[in-house]
Amino acid sequence: MYHKSLTNLLGGMAAAILLLALAPACTAPETETGTAPPPAVSVAIKDTRPWSERMALSIMQRAPEAWRNDFQEKPRWNYTLGLVLQSIAEVGKQHGDPAFVAYARGYGDTMINAEGEIRDYELTKFNIDYIAPGPLLMDLYEETGEEKYRTAMNTLMRQLEWQPRTTEGGYWHKLRYPWQIWLDGLFMGEPFQAEYAQKFDRPEAFDHIAEQFILAEKKMRDPATGLLYHGWDESRLQRWSDPETGLSDHFWGRAVGWYCMGLVDVLDFFPADHPQRPELLAILNRTLEAVMEVRDPATKTWWQVLDLPEREGNYLESTASCMFTYAMIKGANEGYLDERYRKLAQESFDGILETFIRVDPDGSVHLTQGCSVAGLGGDPYRDGSFEYYISEPVRDNDPKGIGPFMRASLEFEKASSTSKL
What we know:
Blueprint: H1 2-27, H2 51-62, H3 79-95, H4 98-111, H5 134-144, H6 147-162, E1 180-182, H7 184-199, H8 205-220, E2 231-233, H9 253-267, H10 277-293, H11 318-334, H12 340-355, E3 357-359, E4 365-367, E5 370-371, H13 386-389, E6 394-395, H14 399-417
Antiparallel strand pairs: 1-2, 3-4, 5-6
Helix pairs in contact: 1-4, 2-14, 3-4, 3-5, 3-14, 5-6, 7-8, 7-9, 8-10, 9-10, 9-11, 11-12, 11-14
C-alpha cells in the first residue's frame, strides 16, 4: 500500500512539474511563427506507468507547445493535431491527471479566439479534414464551459451542412477534389457529427451519417477480398481512377484504418434503436474480417499496401497497425465485435510493441515506421500506384500513429481494470 501511494505521489509530482513547464503554451494564443518553443523539461518516464501515459508524457516532452506535434513551424488547424490532442485529453480523463487535459487545451486556446473564430480555417475550402478536431473542441467545451468552443463547433457543423456531395449524397473530400470520396473522410467528419447530434439533439443527422459509411462501402469494397479501396471518383476524370469503376488501384492500410476508427467512434453515439445501426455493425465486422486476412502472420501487424506483402518496397507500417488494433479492442470492449477480437487485438498490440516501439534510456517512448502522408491527385500529382504509396517518407512519431496508439492503450487499460483481459 505504501509503495503504491508513493508511486502515485511521485507520478503526480512529475505531471505537476510538466504542467508548470507547459503553462506558457496553454495561455498564450498569440504565439508567433518563428519564436523558439519553451524548453522541454526532462521528466523520467517510469515503465510502471500505463502505455497511454508513457506515450502522452513523451509527446509533451518532445513538443512543449501542443501545436508543434505535426512537424510544423506555425500553428495550423489540422486533423492530425485534433487526433493527438484529443487522445491526450482522453488519457488525462481516464487516469485523472489534469496535466494532460491542460496540455490539450493549449491547442484550443491557441487556435480558438475569444469570439470562437478558428485560426487557420477557411470554411469555403470545404475540406473535410477541418472537421476532425471537432471532438477535441467538444471535450474542451465540456471541461471548461467556455462558449467559444461551442461557437467553433457550430462553425464546423455549418461546413458539414454545405459540404459538396456526390449525386448519391457522399461528401466530397475537399472542394478541390470534386466528386471524390476518400476513406479518410469517414473518420474526419462523422465521429464529430455523431457526437454533436447526440449531445445537441440533432437526431435527423444519424440517417445521413449512416449513409456516408454505407455509400463508401458500396462504392469502394472489393468483392474478392472484402477490402476497401482508398478512393472513388464519381466523375472518372482523375488519372488515378479506373475509367469503369472510378476506383483507385490499391488498398492503402491507413485509409482502411481511418474507416474502421470512424465506425467504432460513431457507434458510441448512434441511437440503439436506429434502423441502420445493425448495418453499421455488419460493415465493421466484415471489414475487419477482411483486414485480418492480410495481417502479417509473424508480427501480427499490417503492411503499407495491405495485400502485397511480398512486393519489393512494401513495409510493415505502424499507423495503420495502431488504427486496426484500436478498432478491434474498442469493438470488443463495446460489444460491436465478437469476443474473439479481444485476443486478436492483444496479439497485434504486442506486435506493435515489439515491431514499432522504441524506448529511450530516460523512458521516453517513440513509435517508428509511420507513413508520413498519402493522398490522391493534387500537385504534385499522386497517382495511387504501388510505387507512389511506398515512395512517401517514413518517420517516427507520426501523429496519425501516436494518437491511435494512445487510444488503443486506453482501451486495453479499461479492459484490464474490469478484468476483461
